Amino acid sequence: MLSCRGASLLRPCSIARTTPFSAACTPVSRPVRIAPISAARRTSVVVCSAATEVVDAPPAPAAVEGPKGGVAKLSFQRGSVHKVRRVLDIIRGRTYEDALLMMEYMPYRACEKIIKLLVSAAANAKNNNGALKSKLYVAEAFANGGPALKRMRPRAQGRGVTILKPTFHAAIRVAEKL
Questions:
Q1: Is 96 exposed, middle or buried (0-12, 13-18, 19+ CB in 10 A)?
Q2: Which candidate, 60, 126, 65, places its Cα nearest to that of 96?
Q3: Pairwise CA distance, residues 77 & 167, whole Å
Q4: Which residues pair with 152 in a beta bridge?
Q5: Closest-CA residue to 90 (of 134, 169, 144, 143)
Q6: Of 36, 155, 159, 177, which has the maximum CB count within 10 A?
Q7: Helix (H) or strand (E) holding 168
Q8: Are the C-beta atoms of 170 and 84 separated by less than 8 Å?
């Protein structure tokens, strides 16, 4: 806060700005107010005796090894979920090799994306879990609808019609037959 010579600390400088700043006003520093810490506020640290006791943890249960497998997911892909489910219903429960062979000769465009998904799931099972591709089968395969892309098409008499371009999410889980 600035103060004029001889003026109160609480009032601002009333000297006109025509005079040089350094000649008319000098900076004043305010004392810093620090409240003293009373003895009542001082507290000692109390540690619970139960927190200091060392208790032996029970041994962790042994990891149960189930069937080795892998998962692959596909999200926001263009196409109808109904057409993808038609393919997934055929390959569900089949061996990996049979599913690949069947999809290569199916006349559906959705098979291209599902083949890539199935190959990725098998590669995940092999590389991450050490599964043999010859023992894999399609344990789970499903597809859900995704958000539809909305596009407008001009129509007669100045109207517009919304065109919906569907998307889907798909997932395949392969597992090793025991």
A1: buried
A2: 126
A3: 5
A4: 162
A5: 143
A6: 177
A7: strand 167-176
A8: yes
Token pair listed for 42: 């001082």
Task: Map residue 91 onto helix, strand or coil.
Answer: helix
Whole-number Å distance between alpha carbons of 94 and 69: 14
Burial (0-12, 13-18, 19+ Cβ within 10 Å), 175: buried
Phi/psi at 140 (nearest 5 deg)?
-150, 135
Altogether, the residues listed in the chain come to a count of 178
pLDDT in tens, 51-93: 555 556 666 555 556 678 999 999 999 999 999 999 999 999 9
In angstroms, the CA 169 to CA 148 distance is 12
CA-to-CA distance for 71 and 97, rounded, in angstroms? 16
Query: Which tokens sit at 141?
Result: 């395969």
Looking at the predicted structure, is the pLDDT value of residue 24 above 80?
no
- For residues 175 and 73, the answer to whether their CB atoms sit within 8 Å is no
Cβ atoms 110, 170 nearer than 8 A: no
Closest by CA to 98, choosing from 74, 82, 79, 122, is 122
Listed in sequence order, the residues at least 6 apart from 3 whose beta carbon sits closer than 8 Å to its beta carbon are: 9, 13, 25, 26, 28
Q: Judge whether 102 and 94 are in contact, CB under 8 Å.
A: yes
